[in-house]
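Quick one - first record:
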Amino acid sequence: MSNKQASFYQSVQTNFEKAASKTKLPKGLIAQIGACNSVYQMRFPIKTPKGYEVIEAYRVQHSHHRLPTKGGIRFSHLVNQEEVMALASLMTFKCAIVNVPFGGAKGGVKISSRAYSPEMLEKITRRYTVELVRKNFIGPGTDVPAPDYGTGSREMAWILDTYSQLRNGELDAAACVTGKPTAQNGIQGRTEATGRGVYYSLRELLNDADEMKKIGLETGTAGKTVVIQGLGNVGSYTGMICRDEGDMKVIAISEIEGTIHDPKGIDVAKLIKYRKQKGTIIGFPGTKKLKERNDWVGIECDVLIPAALESQIRKDNAKKVNTKIIVEAANGPVTAAAEAILLKKGVIILPDMFANAGGVTVSYFEWLKNLSHIRFGRMEKRFDERSYTNLVNTVEKMTGKTISQKEKSVLTKGADEIDLVRSGLEETMIDAYHEIRNVLRRKRNVDDWRTAAFLVSLEKVASDYMTMGIFP
């Protein structure tokens, strides 16, 4: 086990204990909430062109206070049990913060997806699913996986197909996994969900006059400078939405091949196309490459968004941070030791359990869609459009004035699935922001966003346990 990953798990425990110390909950209840309920460690063989290989994999169910449990599956050569336990723990608190009725879970397969062909990845994914089914670690009402680092809709489709074959005839089989392709019982808006949730959380903070006054920033998103580490799914959508909907300037992006910088702003959508063509972000027109890839952490900006892996901002580089806001788009990118340094510098840190909860929120919508067996908007869209059209026609008739067909189309449009998903996500993130904000205002002994977020989730999880009658 690497020190880096052990530090991530310890950081989660340290942050949890810090928040728990500020509650009056029974010690036994705190211990139960903090513990991982079930840990499944597995080894299974696969046949490769070079012979047989033994794959190491995990599935952790952190909390059964709500069922099913929910969490992504990570493919990474760095995967180990403590990392998966830490990620599962965060999922419990994340679900509670955004009022999604799941317990936390997480899965990990210790492979580098770049080292295998699509055919071999399919073999590994399907065999992993078989192992989960054997031990009852997957199912619509038991445990519902989703994509994470190194996986996507393709892998989720393989999981669904394997599960459906093993559970032939199960009515709600499609709800056994989320993040599926839309053509295979997925939901529109899931791919962008985490990045969009990051943007909504940041937008709420930037529009908060009291918080902006503390750090000397003007309210609003327009013109704010942003540095993003990681151009995967989360970083890509975060960057595009910040630029297109928030009128923010993404001035630097860091990836495995290096870090590029342009103070005038980077068009993230064009950069993504460039990288697909060239295989690198280096050389993108208008940008300069930093000598040291890891120097992204010290670039002066209004908002720093680590969107890659855990433990990227640590005790050894925290003093280099030159921003006023950090938004944790990745899971655990700031260690507990680094956070202590940053808080003394007056940096606001929007914690991962809130900022990147967009993925699990829209996964919840997908799960509901699969259980109801009907897409969102199907029942009401045309009815709403007719009602709006009648209303506009009536107003035109009464006023004697008319509007253009284009204006009428905008006013009378019924909601598609993507509209409802985005609206539901926005409402969820705004509500969660104000729940956390209220704790910061109400509790004198809480002065950072992570502790406030933990307290919000702790109160909800504790209430569920007490309702169950386990802890009177």
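second record:
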Amino acid sequence: MKIQKIVLPIIALLLIVACSKDSTNTDNETPRVDKSANLRSLGASANDLLSDAKFTSLTIEIVYVTGFKPTDAAINNLKQFLQKHTYKPDGVNVNIRAVASSNLAPFSIEEIAKLEADERSIYNAGDEIAVFIYVADGSNENDEDGKVVLGSAFRNTSVVLYGKTLEKIASNSSSVSKSDVETAVLNHEFGHLFGLVNVGSPMQVDHLDPENAAHCNVNACLMASNIEFGSSIIDMVENRIPELDDLCVNDLVANGGR
């Protein structure tokens, strides 16, 4: 399984309650949610997220630790990004709620996966595909001076943001808002869920960064690795939120997106 991390400066591949179709063996058995479709490898649901061939709506479940709620602006910007690049005629919906701290920080990705298992309540159902985003109240266990993780796309419909680290990075600039940094990180991680770069959405033209797997070699692109390096993310969002380069967009269009 490939896992995407926002790592500074080193990258490692690391909704409304909806129920999946229930299955029971007897009438007395508690219905069980089929979670298997949401526990696949990164990029495995790229076409399902991008197109309306199987799923006509997208629901995002954001679970944040109290005190680390994403800004409304970042959530709205994410919805606009998804509407721009996906075909979901029945809409993009966001379900957001707070949970108590797990007191596990700093986190391993295995601990984040366990928290998802405990906290996630929405899975694919009918013509609705679901994505889970967990906003943690701490850092990644591999953080060190000059090298920190802001977020990770792991599995096919799972993302984590390290809220405390993200806030620290955003606070280092007086010209960039927290919502701008959150937007860049959220959009970047969704780009990985969409299969970029070459992790589920095949490249139409080679634009893979040879030194940073799953990233674009166009420096100004949202999927460029330099959005993940130290103060580079601040530099990149200072004038505008980075967007997908034409090469990345072409990959998405070829895999069912806009």
